[in-house]
Amino acid sequence: MSIQIGDYQLKSQVLLAPMAGTSDKPFRALCRAQGAALTTSEMVVIQKHLLNTNKSKHRLDFFGEPSPISIQIAGSEADELAYSAQQALNFGADIIDINMGCPAKKVCNKAAGSALMQDEALVKDILTAVVNAVDIPVTLKMRTGWNVTNKNAPTIAKIAQDTGIQMLSVHGRTREDKYNGMAEYDTIKEVKSQVNIPVIANGDITSAEKAQQVLDYTLADGVMVGRATQGNPWIISEINHFLKTGKKAPNIPLKVKKQTILGHISQIHQFYGEKMGTQLSRKHIFWYATHFDEKNVQTFWKKVNKITDHKLQYQLLEEFLQSL
User: Is 181 exposed, middle or buried (0-12, 13-18, 19+ CB in 10 A)?
Assistant: First the structure.
């Protein structure tokens, strides 16, 4: 099954979720290499006073990335999001994704992210404004609703389709759930039954078999993988292989995985510079280490977490990987 977003036909059914603090340029490149059909940027607020900040410069660097480039924008007002969408074109956006899925307090306190789902009239205004502001496809990422008694994703899905949104990604939790408990897929199934645009299922897709089960149950067009890629980007190729063949993917040699990890950390150092790169590599090193050696990870982590020199950090990681 192929997913069509405007003029873009995605090459697989597996997409990388936009994750704040994770889906940066080096990680997107890594996940593309593993077969992710679309790697949406971490959420950005594109306002004049923020454009010169370090954070924005890194978040809005898409130079050299293959199309389609999907940039996720956030905000709480229709004109603000329409402006962000137009600015995103200058940074190379092929697709604009609107964030109505983030449950973070700092986002929701401004009535952005998943907080917007409480106000369906505002949702309609925002989606209409953004679709009218640009001549490229606009997609929407949302949750199942605000809380357990207000699961209005099916209603918002219909509003989205009517306003010209070209794909929906639905995380199987409410805003109130944050990332707790188990994701549910009944609401995603209902959303899929209500609209004709592609629907992507997101939330707790932790294995190739789970991805297939979720697709079979919801009849969604694809899956979006988020936290399961942290420390294990190879899950993308495993899911792809399983969806295409119905068989478990052959194990990737440990040697190849080690090269991938070292390449990724090296990319982070280069992209952000030595000081910032060393700081931002820490979480990835922790995730990789946990994935390979959960038992001894704390000992290694205590040592590597204090390191401020990028060369020493890389060397310690190399030694850890050699010991596996």
Answer: exposed
Is the domain covering 4-245 a CATH 3.20.20.70 domain? yes
Q: E strands within 1-108?
A: 4-5, 8-9, 14-16, 38-39, 70-73, 95-100
N residues, the chain: 324
**Separation between Cα atoms, residue 32 and residue 65, nearest integer Å:** 10
pTM equals 0.94
224 compared with 298, residue with greater pLDDT:
224
Beta strands in the chain (DSSP E): 4-5, 8-9, 14-16, 38-39, 70-73, 95-100, 138-143, 167-171, 199-202, 222-225
Over range 22-46, report the average pLDDT: 95
183 is written with which tokens? 């994701």
The CA distance from 303 to 217, in Å, is: 45
Would strands 199-202 and 222-225 be described as parallel, antiparallel, or unpaired?
parallel
Return the active site residues. Answer: 102
Q: How far is CA 58 from the centre of its chain?
A: 16
Q: Residue 46: pLDDT above 90?
A: no
The two three-digit tokens of residue 188, written as one number? 């995603």
Whether the predicted pLDDT of 109 surpasses 60: no
Q: List CB contacts of 58: < 8 A, sequence separation 6 or more.
A: 24, 25, 271, 272
Please name the amino acid found at residue 134.
Answer: V
